[in-house]
Amino acid sequence: MAAHEALLPLSKLKYSTIKEISDSGVVLSSLPSCYACRDPDINGSTEILEEEVPIIDFSLLVGGTAKQRAQVIQDLGKACRDWGFFMVVNHDVPKRLMETMLDACKGFFNMREEEKQEYNGKHVLDPIRHGTSFNTSVEKFRYWRDYLKVFVHPHFHSPAKPSGFREISLEYVTRTREMAKELLKAIWESLELKPDDMEETLDLNSCFQILIVNLYPPCPEPELALGIPPHSDHGLLTILSENGVNGLKVEHNGKWVHVKPAPNSFLVNTGDHMEIVSNGKYKSVVHQAEVNASSTRISIATALGPSLDTVVVPEPQLVKHEHQLAYNGMKYRDFIEHQQANPLMDKSVLDLLKLQK
Asked: What is the pLDDT of residues 124-145, one digit of tens each?
């Protein structure tokens, strides 16, 4: 294919989503050039580690002794400082609910394309959006991914189909939101801040929570494609579960770490607003989604942030002197809109708010 074909809009291709390509029965001998966003020579030389990521025992945080809770808080602080990422085990989200939620998400993507097109939102703040890649209106290359994004708090939304999706997703996002708040409270304590101040500072009673379901079908040349490129998340915490097919990589000490979650666990990463409110003590982690040639990967993320109208700035107690202020503030709604309306690239929006030292 000619190089300029990578610039063709997705609407000019025969299929509008990756799911359509996968279901078409057409066997691709090579990747369409508009999806070839990686150089295999460069990628092949990038070191990938198989390190053990930090593990947090949630049961000890909420039901352990005072000494056990204090140790978990210390471990959380270290994980946020050194990684911006950790795995949560022994949580109180039922395994059956996780499995049912996964089935419901499969059900959505298995609907006819005409049914899903009802949710093809046009604006990044539309409460329900189904689409492909990240933002096809501004991208030079496409990503091997279809998605469903749903705003679930403070106002709960849900697609009408498939049957039961609304009830299952409501229970799932409620349980994960409760878990995220407990983790945030402990992270706040790890910064030696009062947990009661967190609710007011971030307006967590009206916190913004979004459900993001990602579908990554098999790819004919996975070494050339990406499910989603290196980026940081915009919120405070993102809680992720998978269907048993690995593909998440996180950046750690300048190298990529391939993450293999334990069964019935959640993967949690810190977002840009955690970095802002902590004045850079805890960094948002850059991560990416890779694809493979044989299996469909599904990931379910719930991202929790402050209320949309909150302007998050570094917590004053973490800024001892004015010259130590690391970030300006921006209304959270504007931050999301700016990130989602532009090509996704590392910490592009956070970098705009960073103060030069």
From this structure: 899 999 999 998 888 889 999 9
Task: Find, among 210, 194, 228, 104, the residue nearest to 154 by Cα.
Answer: 210
pLDDT, one tens digit per residue, over 111-122 is 999 999 899 977
Does residue 47 sit within a domain? Answer: no
For residue 77, give the CATH number of its domain: 2.60.120.330
Q: Rounded distance, CA 108 to CA 356, Å?
A: 45
For tokens 């059956």, what's the residue?
96
Burial 41-79 (b: 16+ CB within 10 A, else e): eeeeeeeeeeeebbebbbebbbeeeeeebeebbebbbeb
Distance CA 39, CA 340 (A): 25
Measured CA to CA, the distance from residue 103 to residue 65 in angstroms comes to 37
**Cα–Cα distance, 96 to 113 (Å, whole number):** 28
pLDDT tens digit string along 297-351? 999 999 999 999 999 999 999 998 767 899 999 999 999 999 988 888 889 899 9
Report whether the peptide linkage leading into residue 94 is cis, meaning its omega lies within 30 degrees of zero. Answer: no
Domain of 109?
Answer: 52-353
